[in-house]
Structures are given as structure tokens and as C-alpha cells.
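If you are new to this repository, start here. Below is one unmodified record pulled from the training split, so you can see the exact layout before writing a loader.
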Amino acid sequence: MPKHLLRAATVLCLALAALPAAAQYQTPTVDGTVGAGEYANHSGDWSMTWDATYLYIAKTNFISPDHTLLVYLDTDPLSTPTAGTHSNGNLTSPGDHEINPALPFRADARAYIARNLTTSLRTRDGSGSWTAANTDSNDVSSAVNGSTGEMRIRWGAIPGLSGVPSSFAWLAYTVDEDLSPDSVNATIPSSNPTGSTANPSYIYYYTIFSTANGTSTNPFVGQQSTWQVTSNADSGANTLRDTITSAVGDTTSLRRYIVFNTIDNNTIITSSDLPAITQPVTIDGTTAPGYSSAPVLTVQGFSTSSLTDHGIRLTSTAGCVIRGLALVNHGVGILITNGLSHTIAGNYIGVTTSGTTALSNDIGVHVSGATGCTIGGTTSSDRNVISGNSLNGIRSSNHSSSLTIQGNYIGTTSSGNAGLGNGDGIALQSAASTLIGGTSAGAGNVISGNGGNGILSTTTPDVSIYGNFIGVGADGTTALGNGEEGVLQNGGARMTIGATTATAGNTISHNSAGVNVLTQSDSLSVRGNAMTGNANGGVSVGGSVVQPAPVVTAAVISNTNLTITFSLSSNSISHTTQSMQLDLYDADSASAAQGKLYRASSPCYSGSSLNNQAWSAGSGYSGGYQFVLIATSYYDANCTTPGDGSSSNTAKITASTVSAPTNVVAMATGTSTAMISWTAASGATSYEIWRSSLNSAYGLAGTSNGTTFGDSGLSPNTTYLYKVKAVYTGGTSDYSSLDATTTIVFTDPTLTSVTIKAVHINELRTAINAMRASLGLGDETFTDSTLTVNSTNVKAVHLTELRSALDAVRLSLGLPGLTYTDPTITTGVTTVKAAHVTELRAGTQ
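And here is the target side for that same chain:
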């Protein structure tokens, strides 16, 4: 896996790796006993297993009729357990018992063994309430035998299920109803409170991450916890500070969730740093009252004058998620120190909940020494708006690695089309393996409107930048240039900015310069990007490792085809260059030299030096076409691994338009010779004459400095095709139209006063069949196949057949048809004339 795609597993995946697999599906007999081998897993008095149809739960030390047993199930767990809506489940119990806890997940079902041993199932109704008790024994049943209670729940009786779910969450407890008031005497997980509190908050639950037969996870191991913020005070019970302290103090759960219930208002103002988060924690602001698609909950700091004011701190832990917050007025909005695999998504950082007003942090997000973190994502709900921060929107430093930055608006308002700049958009300082953007849908960032650079990379290797808008808005056209460079590199190796594959190129426009490389050690690749309106040009590469730009000696367009003649060499400073390649871009005619549209790439050329190399760059070009080139050198033989890498772009180059010769005429002058002539092409220095015979490929017959060429060494009675190219300084034109001739010497070359004879017709038949042979065709069939001299009269039909046969073969050869004297020859009416034969002879030659 490429380093920039490295993502250390989320805590959920870490949990899966740590959890032991359970046995195959088991189907206990519901008889109030826990027989040997009936249940796969046990924890204290509790046992659980399931099969494709039912869930089974057993509890020992269950004293009937004093005790009741209640089980809550979340059969469609969300990424944050209390997120979602009533259609995902209920957060409170049915209220039909003296003990009615607040739940840590959205429950889909509650099963209940009452003290009178009746068993019922209530499920979510989709509106926040519960259905009436279902006592159908097919759906829920139980048995109590002595001090053991056992329950069976049919999966299909729970909304949304037809069989066993792929995962589920659960908690359970028993209530001693012989006490007054009722009192919870056993909970699972056991961290949930016991006692007689009427409305306890249950925080802990178990998640079964896989229910698959044979690979299911232990239902008593995957403990998680949910902590609810119900106060916007800076400190005290149920505040954000309090819940972070409690969550971090929970050393048993695999993951801890901090969610937001109804609070006084949606702004929390801190007077000092919140506690550092040192355990896997999700803080989910999307659970705050009023959330729809953008943050409504603000965490506002106490000072931007010092980088020691941190909004959220993730320290030496793994898999934290910070989502749906507006973090403003801090020294650092989010500080990630060491650790791995954190996700920062769906936040406004440096921007108020309006999405248009800055309340700046010094740094929006600072990743220091951490690995595999993700800022943003490919969906709009994952997008962070990181804007208005006075120093950097995002900073990665202290050897952070495998950081992914995707789908964010960095330096704009929440619309993505108006500026709200940071200092620098993204600053990488001694970091490594950073992916900014990507090629998948939604991966590209908008990095625009910042006062400094869009992206600043200092002594940072392995930076990949794909598919971003840098200097334009989210619509791809609104000019929101960064005040300095679009991308500035000052040290580091293996920076890749764009590629020629679809969706990989960046749009880098309206900045001071598009890409400015002050110094780099090797393997720079700048390809496939679109650059317009950058005041100081597109790509500039400096320092000690520089691939020179190509030197163009000619660029000509003939019949929309562009040919570029250039010289190129490589310094082979970082690696020995083994191959080189050019990229062609339409030039931005209104700005300094830069490529506004990638057009084509040259073949991969071997070696490290090319002199007057001609490249046919394709068709579709017109007169006055302006372009720039970027060269890239490679240290492998197939243009795959950059060596010294990409050059600066060339200055703007204007291609000249050239034309091919016209009026090409080929005429046999004997049985082995022919004369070819044409009309001169303006500006041509010479001409190339190309010949083909017997359906073979064209080969160069010779060259001429004038407008004629005598060809020799030809075979008798053979048809030859000719076409001509004009040669210009730096290139050649397209081929001319073609002409054909057949090497045959006719009897009576001048027919003006000669009676038409059988031999004249025979010779024409021979010439036409020679032309057919050049196409791989057999002889034509004629009337009076043998014309005998002084015996067979020349007839009108003979001429008519010759005309038809000649026109057909000329059409197959790509030659125009002929215009004939007496287009219609009528037997007994039209006199056969010398002109008729002369025209046919000309058509064959």
C-alpha cells in the first residue's frame, strides 16, 4: 500500500483484531438451565449466544418472583451510537417501569421477563415511542428454573430485520422488585450503575462487531461507552470538560463517545485548556440540538495570542474522531500529538457556525508526530471548512507521516466560492508521506483565498497533490487566488503535483505563481495540471537539482496536425537519466507562460539527450496555436520513476501553419520510368516523394528541391501510387493527394490522326488489369476477351467497359473519376474517336 494511503485501523478494527472468535451458531433449549456447551460465551452470571433466527440470553442468580430481567438491543448500530433520528431507535426506555434509564445508543428493541414470568418485546415505532408489548411466544419467550432465567428473542420480530443482523449493541440489567423502591441489582456491562435511582444514565454497553457463523465476536468483550454533554458551562457536571475527563478515565472501553443532548445554548466558552484526550474517543457535534448538515455547536477558546490554547487535544492515542464542531478563537483549534489514525471531519475550524465569518485560531489543525490521520473525506458531510486562521489552516510537522487531506475548503467560506483566508492554507514542515486530494470523486480540496501560499512544503518528502482547486472556488472557475504561490516547495524529495490520468490534475490558477520549487533533491513530477492567471507564470523549478526545459526549434501545423521539433538534455544530478518525456499544454494567452489545458504526452524517449527530435503531437490544431511544454526525466527506461524530474514550463511558443503540395500528377514515361510533378507549397525547402505498389506500404522514392521527380527502376505493366510531402524547417507537411500511373508504353502514342485499332484496346485492358493487381484484384472480364488485329472490329461496348472498369479501380485507389468526351457512347450512333482512347490512357497513367 502506498504510504500516503496508509491508514492505521480505526479503533473498531483494532477491537476486532483483539476480540476472540466465538463458536458456530448455537441453539440452546430454552428451559431455564444453562447446559454444558449451550452458550458460546459467559460473563459472571450472564450468558449469550445466537443463531440465524434467535438471540438467546441467560442469567443465573435470577430470583423469581423478586427479579425482573430487561434487555435493550441496537440492531443497526451507527458510527456514533446516539446519532441519527427516531427511525434509528430510541434513546429512552418505555417508561413502564420504576427504573427507566437513559440509553447510550438508539435502541430498536427491549425484551422483558416480568416478575410474574410473563415475557414481552417492545420495539421502536419510528417516532420516538415504543410499540405495545408483544407477548407472542414465537417472537419472545422465556423459562425460569430455580435461580436461572433464560430468554429467546426472534430477530425477525425487530424492525428492519429478517434474520440475524451483521452487528448489534446491547446492555441488560435485573431489577429487584421486592424492594421499595425498586432497585437494580445486576447490570451488564457491570460498569453501569445499580441501585434505586429512577432515571439512571447508562453509559456502557457491548458491541458485537460480527455475528457471522464461526467468526462472531465475543458479546462480553467489546465494551463501549457514551458520555452526554448537557451543560454549556466551562466546568462542572455533564460539561464538555467533565465528559472528556470521564471518557479518558474509562480505561476499559474500546471506544468512548461524547455526544450532546439539550444544553443551554450551543456555545461552550473555555477559560483554560480542555483535558488532553489520551484514549480512543469520538466527539460528535452532529448530535447537538439543531444540527442539520453544518456545525451548530461552538467551542470557543480563551486566547489566540498563545499557541498553548488548544481547542481539542489528541495525545498519544489512536482512532479518535472529531466531528461536527465549530472550533474558534484558540491558539490551535485541534492539536494532534503523536498517536495514529485520527479523523477530523465535518468541522468549521476558524469559522463561526454562520460559515461566512472568521473567528480565527492561530492554527486550525496541527498534526505533530502522528501517523495515518485523515482530515476531511470524500463526502460533503466529511468536509471541514478550515479558514480564517491567522497562521496556517493545516500544519503537519515533527515527522508526521501518512496524513490524508481530502475534500476540505481551506481558505474559503462554507460555500467554497468566497474567500476567507488563512495565512498559508496547508503548511508541511519536516513531515512525510502526505496525500492532498486524490483521484476519487470528492477527494479534491479547495485551497484558495489564503493570504500566503496555498500549499507550503518545507523539507518534506513524498507529498502527492491530486485533483485540487488551488486558487479557484469550488465551482472551478471563480478566481480566489492565494496571495503567494499555489504550491511552494523548499526542500524535500518525491513531490508529485498532478498526473496525466483523468481526475489527477490540479487546477492551479490566479496565484502569484502556480508551482514554485525553490529547491528539491529528486523525483519532482508536475504533470497534467491546468494553470491560468498566475501572475508570475506556471511552473518554475530552481535549486541544484533541475531538469532543463526543452528547446523548441520548430513547431508546424499541417492539415491540423502538429509537429514539434525540439532538443532536450538531462543533467542526471540525482540519478542517471535513462528516459525522458514531454507534456504539451495549451498556453494561457492572456497571462505569463503557463499551461491552461493538458493536451498530450510524447512517446517515452530513451537516453538523456535528444537533438532535433521531431514529435507528431496529434491533430486538431489550427493556425496561431500557442503552447508550452514541460519535460520530465526518469531513471528507469520506461518513463515511470522520475529522476531529476520535471522542468519549468517553456516560454509560450506559437506554431506556424504549413501546407502540402497540390496538383500531383504521375505519368509513366516508359516501362520502367515515371515522371511526377506538383504545384509548389509556399515556404517549402524541399519535397519527399513517396511510392507504393501492389498494395504495399508507402516507401520514400526520393527527394527533390524542385517540383518534379523522375522515378526509375520500375517494373513493366505495374501500377504505382505517388504522393508528396513538403519539407519545412523543423518539420514536414502532411501528404498531398495521390496520383497513380501504370508502366506501359502505348502503340501510337499520338492518336490524333490514327485509326483506332484492336491493339489500342488491348493495351488499355492490360493497364487497367495492372491497376487492379495493385489492389490485389483479379483481371476484369471484357466483351471479346481476345481482340484480334485486323479481325475484331473496335466497338462502342469496348470503350464503355474500359471506362467503367477504369473508374472503379481509380475509386478503389483513392483517385478521382474522369471526365470523358461523349459521356454516353451509343452503338451504331457514336463514332469511336482518338480522344476516347487518349482519355483512357491518361486515366491509367
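Two things worth knowing about this chain: Helices lie at 11-18, 240-249, 758-774, 796-812, 834-844. Residues 172 and 474 are 49 Å apart (CA to CA).
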